[in-house]
Prior knowledge:
Order of helices and strands: HHHHHHHHHHHH
Distance between the termini: 13 Å
Structural class: mainly alpha
Shape: globular
Number of domains: 1
Number of helices: 12
Helix content: over 70%
Largest sheet: none
Number of strands: 0
Amino acid sequence: MSTIDVASVRESVSGRTAVPLPVALSRVALLLLVVAVGAARLAGLTVPDRPQWAVYLLGMVAMNLPHGGYEHLDNLRRRTAGFQTRYVAAYLALAAGFVALLFAAPLVGLALACGVVVAKGGGGGLAVLDALGVADHLHARPQRALAALVRGGAPMAVGLAAFPADFRAFSALMVGIFGGTLGSVGGVETVRLLVGGGYALALATHLSLGAVRGGGRSWLVDGGESVLLAAYFAVVPVVLAVGLYFPLWYSARQVGRARLVETDPFDGQRGGGPLALLGADDPQTVALGAWGALVGGALATGALAAGLFLLAPAPLGGGPVLAGAVAFWSVFVSVIALPHVVVGSWLDGDRGIWYVP
Length: 357
């Protein structure tokens, strides 16, 4: 987004100061988890592995995956049939390319999977700040990119720095799905120091630049949320933290963003093709169209997951069933999240899944 674009965003969202309930609840949820888990750890208690794995799968499969489908549906229902076709084709092509990369170079694929988490959390987070009208302290593209890196980087960078053994164990399972190993990766402590130190520097720079270039309420909101994210991933065990981060933070906040912009007009466009029913005047017809689209998307997603499971040499990475399921789903969700970000946002300059007028 250019500097001019940033200015127009500020103008279009000026006056949007009310915090939607889902956004407020996202802050409360993470704060409560930090306090509860932090207190438990201070008391010498730990969260057992199996409950962490189960909560991860519940959060990522049952709670977060449907929201990802809704983001595409909400975007595509406003577009022409030709656009929908190109969108789906590009999505499938990019997902297939990612799968091919994972088979050819599992370590590179793992790095890309981590990058997808950063891009999704960062890009979606900036959109929420824009919708709330609290991005006044972010003046240009490099500063916005740094803000996205800090917000999106917390799950990976802080999670690795705070829980290096768990992070490495699941990374080994993920590359093991495709026959790879972490043998060529440096020592855990070295990587931990480099990644953790780099993130701390990025966070400090982000907070300092925001204070110098504007400060005020927008900087306080952004800074407070950035510090909360860092604290959350530093305190809550990484598997549990990631499993709850996407449904309780990312998805909840995107629901809040959508509520702020849902009254914006279609700009004369109505969805065509398979989604034409969503533009009907009859509520029952709209409901039928939404049901068909969501069921079709669920079946397509299930088919992709099943195909990857059957093709992978070791679909559970050689680990226990539940831990292997966490590793497999982490890989699969990265495969479908890459085009989610690239096609759904970066290549869709007119609207996109994180639309803010």
